[in-house]
């Protein structure tokens, strides 16, 4: 555990998820990326040849594509210093009692089994490269709901995988999408049949335990006509002196009349490069909502996107990013209007503290000749000290004439007048500052289930300690 202290006592003390357990991988790839590593990952999963060939094609694309030269500083990413695959247990369990004790103890400390008992309809738990636990309430299984690892889906539901895998985010989309497609491991596969409403959330929790590790989960969610699901994702990692890499791909397909809500509370350690691609296709009268909380990591580049493919489709993105000392949060969204009568709402909040950098990067686009396009974007930034910074990079590419577009952006700080007013009512200075921050993030927090709203507020409070006064 000596590695956890080298990043500074302040972070180690404030980040309760920074613990690690001794590594006991059953299978582990050599350090660095090669065709042999890609083949080893595929062989470890006993994949059919069509998936291996898809991986190898993506690997060749990854080698040819350049690193992004925009956005956050990625000069510290060293692909040769990463382990791309580590298998922690022999198979995925459907009972926590069957999960290896040291891994089960990790999830007990994270509170996942208890959360499942109280307010979740199903849980998937990933440890390094593989899902170690997966379970779904029987009444949902009886209705035809599928909630499994993508590995399981490749074997048991190849028709759905072949139809949708890589169609929302092709491996040629960007360098990190190509990397994920080459070495993906773990993640979630969800299929909700026509008309089925999963009223209790499903959750996947992604935990990294290995030093200098890359986690590359792949998530595919297909929600059939008139169906509904709320999927919640959580993630944490130990604090190590060496950087780790998280490069996920999430594909969502909302078929006509479907509604999908995808909520993330990311709380990575500050040695993590978090570079992900997330995108949804919303067809006729479908609704897709991203609720995105970004706390922690060294660098985050994440822009959940919604492509409004069908008439009457609606998309919403609600996000918050907290950039603390030594952190850069480059986040935002992309919404593409491809059909008539489509609408979108973007609410983005950021907080910068201790020299942290937060940036909003967003694109709203409408194709030519469309009718009745409506979009509203609101970007608010709160800067807590002179050392911190915030940036806004909005793009409005409106090629239709029948468009209603609103955009509002503002930057503010906690003012002395606000603090004095609250303190005059008998409230302490630090508590008053926290009240102002809570009011600032309230539009996002109120979109989360109560238990997760409480957790997000608690995480913000930890980040805020010592910020005022």
Can you describe what's shown?
By secondary structure, this protein is of the alpha/beta class. It has two domains: 2-302, no CATH class; 414-469, no CATH class. Helices cover 25% and strands 35% of the residues. It contains twelve helices and 25 strands. It has helices at residues 9-14, 35-44, 49-64, 101-110, 112-119, 138-142, 150-156, 158-164, 175-183, 416-423, 429-445, 450-464, and strands spanning 27-28, 86-87, 122-127, 130-136, 146-148, 189-192, 202-207, 214-215, 218-223, 228-236, 244-246, 249-254, 259-268, 272-275, 277-282, 287-296, 299-302, 305-308, 314-323, 328-337, 343-352, 357-366, 373-383, 389-398, 403-412. Strands 5, 6, 8, 9, 11, 12, 14, 15, 17, 18, 20, 22 and 24 form a 13-stranded mixed β-sheet that branches. The protein is globular. The two termini are 34 Å apart.
Task: Record keyword descriptors for this entry.
single chain, 469 residues, alpha/beta, 2 domains, 13-stranded mixed β-sheet, disordered N terminus
First-to-last CA distance = 34 Å
Low-confidence stretches: 1-13
Query: Structural class per helix/strand content?
Result: alpha/beta
* Helix count from the secondary structure assignment: 12
Largest sheet: 13 strands, mixed
- The percent range for helix content is 25-40%
Average pLDDT for all residues? 87
- The gyration radius over C-alpha positions equals 22 Å
Q: Categorize the overall geometry.
A: globular
Q: How many separate domains make up the residues?
A: 2
DSSP strand count:
25
Portion in beta strands: 35-45%
This entry's quaternary arrangement is single chain
């Amino acid at each position: 555990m000596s590695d956890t202290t080298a990043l500074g006592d302040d972070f180690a003390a404030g980040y309760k998820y920074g613990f690690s357990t001794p590594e006991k991988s059953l299978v582990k790839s050599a350090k660095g990326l090669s065709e042999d590593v890609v083949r080893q990952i595929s062989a470890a999963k006993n994949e059919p040849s069509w998936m291996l060939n898809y991986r190898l094609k993506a690997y060749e694309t990854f080698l040819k594509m350049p690193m992004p030269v925009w956005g956050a500083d990625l000069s510290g990413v060293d692909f040769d210093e990463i382990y791309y695959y580590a298998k922690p247990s022999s198979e995925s369990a459907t009972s926590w009692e069957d999960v290896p004790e040291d891994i089960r103890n990790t999830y007990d400390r994270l509170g996942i089994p208890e959360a499942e008992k109280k307010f979740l309809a199903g849980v998937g738990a990933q440890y390094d490269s593989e899902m170690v636990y997966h379970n779904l309430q029987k009444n949902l299984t009886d209705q035809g709901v599928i909630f499994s690892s993508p590995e399981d889906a490749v074997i048991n539901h190849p028709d759905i995988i072949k139809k949708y895998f890589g169609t929302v985010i092709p491996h040629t989309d960007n360098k990190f999408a190509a990397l994920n497609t080459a070495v993906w491991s773990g993640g979630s596969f969800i299929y909700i049949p026509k008309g089925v409403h999963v009223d209790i959330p499903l959750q996947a929790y992604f935990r990294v335990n290995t030093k200098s590790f890359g986690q590359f989960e792949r998530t595919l969610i297909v929600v059939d006509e008139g169906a509904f699901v709320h999927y919640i994702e959580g993630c944490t990692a130990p604090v190590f002196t060496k950087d780790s890499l998280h490069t996920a791909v999430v594909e969502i397909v909302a078929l006509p009349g479907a509604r999908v809500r995808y909520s993330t509370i990311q709380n990575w350690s500050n040695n993590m490069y978090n570079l992900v691609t997330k995108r949804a296709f919303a067809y006729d009268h479908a609704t897709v909502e991203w609720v995105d909380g970004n706390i922690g990591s060294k660098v985050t580049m994440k822009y959940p996107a919604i492509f409004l493919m069908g008439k009457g489709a609606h998309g919403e993105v609600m996000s918050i990013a907290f950039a603390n000392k030594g952190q850069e949060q480059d986040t935002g969204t992309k919404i593409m209007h491809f059909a008539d009568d489509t609408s979108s709402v973007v609410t983005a909040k950021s907080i910068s503290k201790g020299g942290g950098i937060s940036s909003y990067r967003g694109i709203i686009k409408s194709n030519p000749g469309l009718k009745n396009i409506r979009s509203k974007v609101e970007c608010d930034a709160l800067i807590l000290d002179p050392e911190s910074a915030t940036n806004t990079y909005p793009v409005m590419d409106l090629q239709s004439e029948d468009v209603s577009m609103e955009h509002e952006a503002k930057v503010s700080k906690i003012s002395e007048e606000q603090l004095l007013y609250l303190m005059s009512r008998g409230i302490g200075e630090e508590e008053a500052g926290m009240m102002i921050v809570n009011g600032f993030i309230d539009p996002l927090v109120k979109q989360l289930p109560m238990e997760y709203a409480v957790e997000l507020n608690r995480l913000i409070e930890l980040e805020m300690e010592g910020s005022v006064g």
